[in-house]
Backbone:
């Protein structure tokens, strides 16, 4: 059977909810040496909308080509996505991290390191745009779980790019801190504090972000 289906070639074509489904399939089948065929079929199901009952009719060589394309798509490392649309609503990345409230920080801190809760972190980072002039925009105040249902549909380029943003920010802060301590000859006395900064909780969990990306 010749495959005629829509295969995502851009990360923005994939929803967060579908990516989480994919991760759960991999997790359940990771110790099964004979699961490759089933996983490939589930990839067609999740990302291309092909039911399992139909996927079994496709040639394995064609399935592998599609899976290879999807795998390449999932490995993309996009630049920070500042805005995206869900339906008629435009969501914008929080313009000033320094203006983040303690409540926003706690919710971001609690959820950014977990794929199961990633939609909650996205609800902190991306809010409906209420005013926009050219490339500048203002977003709504954070409203907790109001947009949770919407954010499960966050495009994966926004998810991955925001994670990369925080991961790279963490590396820059770590390098800057190390340089400062070396210049002040305080490195030896500050090892424990520095380790706490790099490997501690919240947005500073850059190691966990690196594992997720």
Residues:
């Amino acid at each position: 059977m010749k495959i005629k289906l829509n295969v995502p070639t851009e990360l923005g074509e994939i929803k967060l909810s579908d990516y989480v489904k994919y991760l759960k399939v991999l997790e359940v089948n990771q110790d099964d040496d004979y699961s490759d065929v089933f996983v490939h079929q589930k990839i067609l199901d999740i990302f291309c909308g092909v039911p399992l009952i139909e996927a079994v009719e496709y040639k394995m060589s064609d399935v592998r080509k599609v899976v290879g394309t999807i795998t390449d798509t999932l490995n993309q490392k996009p630049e920070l996505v500042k805005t995206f649309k869900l339906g008629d609503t435009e969501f914008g990345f929080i313009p000033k991290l320094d203006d983040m409230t303690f409540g926003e920080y706690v919710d971001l801190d609690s959820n950014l390191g977990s794929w199961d809760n990633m939609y909650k972190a996205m609800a902190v980072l991306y809010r409906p745009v209420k005013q926009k002039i050219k490339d500048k925009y203002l977003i709504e105040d954070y409203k907790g779980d109001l947009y949770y249902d919407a954010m499960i549909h966050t495009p994966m380029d926004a998810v991955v790019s925001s994670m990369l943003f925080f991961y790279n920010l963490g590396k820059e802060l770590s390098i800057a801190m190390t340089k400062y301590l070396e210049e002040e000859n305080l490195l030896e006395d500050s090892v424990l504090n520095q380790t706490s900064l790099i490997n501690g909780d919240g947005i500073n969990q850059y190691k966990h972000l690196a594992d997720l990306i």
User: Anything to note?
Assistant: Residues 83-212 form one domain. Confidence is low (pLDDT under 50) at residues 190-207.
